[in-house]
């Protein structure tokens, strides 16, 4: 009997992915469609980003996907001048957190001149294709 | 709750490349603490070995270290909470003694970070965050703390110079700590003109990796008496907390909620407040970490941390001396050994044995040890 195929889509997330298999592999499916998605508990309505397959308040209840849309407010960021192994080619780059109100998103800042980046500015989250064929998402000016 | 005393402390020198294996490194702190307590191995009821994995190839290092120190057949436990591993170990040791299960327990923390390159270490440290959703973006500890620094400076209108002042203070005392890895004075201008690592943090805002070990022996009041301990240092309050690992699950970046929560617990248990503390060791892996600690521990009101360092109130002669052993910024930061090293400093202070670093007649001391970027937090209050 052939072995069942393993869904390893998550190994395509980011410059270097440290996770291959997860129950939220559809996150990559959404990225491939140009969408950044989180999950939401179908019972209590809590929104989760990063997405998760389980609501800690309502164990056993299903979650459903929602698309991250509109603008978020930049809470903080930092521009890296050194990088861990595997990320040197990306330098310099900036990591940041966007606040969407009922959830937040951690990620990278995209093609925005760093001198124009300010805490409190409105930004959008966009899917980004990486040179190695992987996908992530970046924050751009709204 | 039964009283629990620290009866012995020890620490290896913190160095860049320790010329021995982890068992030999751990033995250095063990030997010093045993001599300090005047203890025999038969006096130790159990051991708690603390480190953060992935730096050495040894799996389950508690077994190796217990054997090398001759601490079989006592039970041994392995505890890991990243950079706060050995203060978490202290909480476990406290619990074992307070519960009456053991009447003395040794907490032995170690880390030999030079087993791997600095770049590899950054990558491992970065994986002390969320590897599924954060690490793929290329994260490292300086960058996470830099995000906090950026938010802090923006929120309170503080300056990079305020952060640099913390490094200048650390370097002042690092020079007189024979066990510190960095023993040079540092000028404000030197800090400000140094290369950026992750903006706004620059080279001198960051502590160095180091190899090192620390050891703390705790005992019940009866055991301490029976062993003839003349200067027991009592654990009066012990608080611990955790917060979400992923930055997107945090409510703020200009302080560490984990430290506020742990401090609240520790003060309540000790029946003391920030103004009662005479000397403190805080987790200054980066200058911003010490700045936030001033406020999270209640030494300063939110946003007033810069005033505290500008007025030199956290120097040895100030109202609340902080990290007068040079802190992690001077000592280096061998993750698993760090908390125990901080405890050692405070215990020596409360015994009036801190030499050139001695603060005048302290009654109460505090240790603040953070694991990850505000992921784990331990605050412990000691009294003579």
From TrEMBL, chain A:
Residues 65-123 form the ChsH2 C-terminal OB-fold domain. SUPFAM superfamilies: Nucleic acid-binding proteins. Residues 31-61 form the ChsH2 rubredoxin-like zinc ribbon domain. This is DNA-binding protein. It comes from Desulfoferula mesophila.
From TrEMBL, chain B:
Residues 245-384 form the Thiolase C-terminal domain. Residues 21-180 form the Thiolase N-terminal domain. It holds the Pfam family Thiolase_N. It is an enzyme of class 2 (transferase). Its EC number is 2.3.1.176. InterPro entries: Thiolase, Thiolase-like, Thiolase_C_2, Thiolase_CS, Thiolase_N. GO terms for biological process: lipid transport. Keywords: Lipid transport, Lipid-binding, Transferase, Transport. One of its GO terms (molecular function) is acetyl-CoA C-acyltransferase activity. CDD domains: SCP-x_thiolase. Signal peptide: none annotated. Gene3D superfamilies: 3.40.47.10. PANTHER family: ACETYL-COA C-ACETYLTRANSFERASE, ACETYL-COA C-ACYLTRANSFERASE. This is propanoyl-CoA C-acyltransferase.
């Amino acid at each position: 009997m052939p072995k069942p195929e393993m869904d390893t889509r998550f190994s395509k997330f980011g410059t270097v992915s440290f996770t291959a298999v997860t129950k939220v592999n559809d996150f990559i499916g959404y990225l491939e469609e140009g969408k950044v998605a989180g999950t939401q508990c179908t019972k209590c309505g809590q929104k989760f980003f990063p997405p998760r397959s389980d609501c800690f308040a309502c164990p056993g209840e299903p979650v459903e996907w929602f698309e991250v849309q509109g603008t978020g407010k930049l809470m903080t960021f930092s521009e890296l001048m050194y990088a861990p192994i595997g990320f040197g080619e990306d330098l310099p780059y900036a990591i940041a957190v966007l606040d969407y109100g009922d959830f937040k998103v951690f990620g990278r800042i995209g093609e925005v001149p760093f001198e124009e980046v300010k805490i409190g500015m409105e930004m959008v989250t966009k899917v980004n294709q990486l040179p190695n064929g992987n996908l992530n998402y970046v924050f751009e000016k709204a | 709750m039964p009283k629990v005393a620290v009866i012995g402390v020890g620490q290896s020198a913190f160095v860049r490349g320790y010329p021995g294996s982890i068992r030999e490194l751990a033995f250095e702190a063990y030997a010093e603490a045993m001599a300090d307590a005047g203890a025999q191995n038969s006096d130790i009821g159990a051991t708690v070995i603390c480190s953060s994995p992935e730096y050495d190839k040894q799996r389950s290092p508690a077994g190796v270290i217990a054997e090398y120190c001759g601490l079989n057949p006592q039970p041994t436990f392995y505890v890991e909470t990243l950079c706060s591993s050995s203060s978490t170990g202290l909480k476990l040791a406290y619990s074992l003694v307070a519960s009456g299960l053991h009447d003395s327990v040794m907490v032995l923390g170690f880390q030999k970070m030079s087993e791997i390159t600095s770049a590899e270490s950054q990558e491992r440290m970065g994986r002390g965050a969320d590897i599924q959703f954060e690490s793929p973006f290329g994260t490292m500890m300086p960058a996470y703390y830099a995000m906090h620094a950026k938010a802090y400076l923006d929120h309170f209108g503080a300056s990079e110079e305020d952060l640099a002042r913390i490094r200048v203070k650390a370097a002042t005392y690092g020079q007189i700590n024979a066990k510190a890895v960095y023993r040079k004075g540092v000028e404000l201008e030197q800090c400000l003109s140094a290369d950026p690592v992750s903006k706004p943090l620059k080279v001198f805002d960051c502590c160095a990796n180091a190899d090192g070990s620390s050891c703390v022996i705790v005992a019940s009041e009866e055991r301490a008496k029976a062993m003839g301990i003349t200067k027991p240092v009592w654990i009066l309050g012990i608080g611990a907390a955790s917060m979400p690992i992923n930055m997107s699950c945090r409510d703020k970046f200009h302080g560490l909620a984990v430290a506020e929560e742990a401090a609240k617990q520790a003060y309540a248990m000790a029946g003391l407040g920030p103004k009662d503390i005479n000397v403190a060791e805080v987790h200054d892996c980066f200058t911003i970490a010490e700045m936030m600690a001033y406020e999270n521990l209640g030494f300063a009101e939110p946003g007033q941390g810069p005033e505290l360092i500008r007025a030199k109130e956290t120097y040895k002669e100030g109202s609340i001396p902080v990290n007068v052993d040079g802190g992690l910024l001077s000592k280096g930061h061998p993750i698993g050994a760090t908390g125990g090293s901080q405890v050692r400093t405070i215990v020596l202070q409360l015994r009036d044995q801190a030499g050139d670093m001695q603060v005048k007649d302290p009654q109460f001391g505090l240790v603040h040890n953070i694991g990850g970027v505000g992921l784990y937090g331990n605050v412990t209050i000691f009294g003579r």
